[in-house]
């Protein structure tokens, strides 16, 4: 889809990867709603702040009413609790699923009729190499991103007849707050990944593999399961 005249909603646009996405969309000529729990923290020049908490369906419905000209939804907002699935806090596991799976689902359900009503468009889900690789130490996060991958495939088929293309971005570690503890040489630049994501939307790519980690993990999906030791 052409981004120049697109009207984009980016969830979690106040910092991290979402902030890069919002800024680059503005640069490309799109109208951008920078969605955030606290819209006053959205400081991307040219973006329109929009209140949206992905765990609060009423706020999502209200955002969809306000941003009634939307043609592109980017489900970016996410959390990483570090909870493990067996020994971790079960409430954290649920919170992660609420944010990373039910959040994009609720946003897609609310914005699909809006995008369709505006003549069609696209949804991009910000996923992870951990949608496909599930180490114990990140079990809860990986499960939520695997679920969001399934959501991506199923909503792609359900929304295609309504003129909406659903795609996924997969990446390993990026240089944002979420990966602050990860050594610099293991992270890619979020600005570069944002550029790849937008190029992918423009060229109709359904699966954007933004770094070597995600390409490697995807290539090895057919390998036999084996225990991870980390
Ligand atoms: N960083 C990485 O290494 C990495 C790798 C692969 C995928 N990802 C994915 O990339 C996306 C962006 O993450 P990031 O790296 O930019 O992380 P980040 O720097 O921690 O930013 C997370 C963003 O999500 C927002 N958010 C969290 N919960 C929310 C909620 N309930 N409603 C609305 N917004 C909410 C945060 O808003 P507040 O300021 O209000 O908390 C913030 O804007 C996430 O989906 C993440 O899983 C990240």
Structure commentary:
This protein is α/β, with parallel strands linked by helices. 40% of the residues lie in helices and 17% in strands. It contains six helices and nine strands; from the N terminus they run βαββαβαβαβββαβα. It has helices spanning 16-27, 57-66, 90-117, 139-159, 190-203, 212-219, and strands at residues 7-11, 31-36, 48-51, 72-75, 121-126, 164-170, 173-174, 187-188, 207-209. The strands form two sheets. A seven-stranded parallel β-sheet has the order 3-2-1-4-5-6-9, with helices on both faces. Helix 4 (139-159) links the parallel strand 5 (121-126) and strand 6. The longest helix is centred in the middle third of the chain and has 28 residues, at 90-117. The N and C termini lie far apart (40 Å). 45% of the residues are buried. The mean pLDDT is 97. It binds NADP nicotinamide-adenine-dinucleotide phosphate. NADP nicotinamide-adenine-dinucleotide phosphate is lined by residues 11-12, 14-18, 36-38, 53-55, 76-79, 99, 126, 128, 171, 173-174, 176-179.
User: Which series of helices and strands comes N to C?
Assistant: EHEEHEHEHEEEHEH
Subunit arrangement of the protein:
single chain
Query: Segments where pLDDT lies below 50 for 5+ residues?
Result: none
Percent of residues in helical segments? 40-55%
Q: State the major sheet.
A: 7 strands, parallel
Task: Name the ligand types.
Answer: NADP nicotinamide-adenine-dinucleotide phosphate
């Amino acid at each position: 889809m052409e981004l120049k005249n697109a009207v984009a909603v980016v969830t979690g646009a106040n910092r991290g990867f979402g902030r890069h996405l919002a800024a680059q969309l503005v640069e490309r000529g799109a109208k951008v709603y920078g969605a955030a729990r606290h819209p006053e923290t959205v400081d991307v020049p040219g973006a329109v702040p929009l209140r949206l908490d992905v765990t609060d369906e009423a706020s999502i419905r209200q955002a969809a009413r306000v941003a009634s000209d939307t043609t592109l939804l980017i489900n970016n907002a996410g959390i990483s609790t570090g909870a493990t699935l067996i020994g971790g806090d079960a409430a954290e596991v649920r919170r992660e699923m609420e944010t990373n799976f039910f959040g994009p689902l609720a946003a897609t359900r609310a914005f699909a009729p809006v995008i369709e009503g505006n003549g069609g468009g696209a949804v991009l889900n910000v996923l992870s190499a951990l949608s496909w690789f599930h180490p114990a130490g990140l079990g809860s996060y990986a499960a939520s991103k695997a679920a969001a991958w399934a959501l991506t495939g199923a909503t792609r088929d359900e929304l295609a007849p309504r003129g909406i293309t659903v795609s996924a971005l997969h990446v390993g570690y990026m240089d944002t707050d979420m990966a602050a503890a990860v050594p610099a040489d293991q992270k890619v630049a979020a600005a570069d990944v944002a550029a790849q994501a937008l190029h992918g939307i423009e060229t109709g790519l359904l699966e954007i593999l933004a770094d070597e980690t995600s390409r490697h993990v995807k290539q090895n999906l057919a390998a036999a399961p084996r225990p991870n030791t980390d």
